[in-house]
Amino acid sequence: MALLIRLLGDFNKKKSSLLQQKLKQILSNSSEHCCLVDLATIHSINNYGLVTLVTLHRIAKKNNCNLYLINLNDTVKYYLELTGLDRKFNIKQNVKNVNYTQLVN
Which of 17, 39, 79, 100 could crosslink 4 through cysteines, CB 3.0-4.6 Å? Predict the structure, then answer.
């Protein structure tokens, strides 16, 4: 089983902070070793989104959890490549059926 974070809508400061808090709470109370961040519904990403992804990566790593970004569209992939973050993350495309233990919006 994996922890699935499915992002909906646009990133903003409030959503970013809430997402980080939820991930810290979930990982501190579980033994998950795999965390998937599904970006299928995110059509664009700004600095809050990029900083949030980096922070989620840091939180996961601190909790011995592998973080994967899945189902990126071309725009999001472009910004990750532009900033060099594509080399920091494990990226998987076309991930469909995922068994998950928690859904975070």
Answer: 100
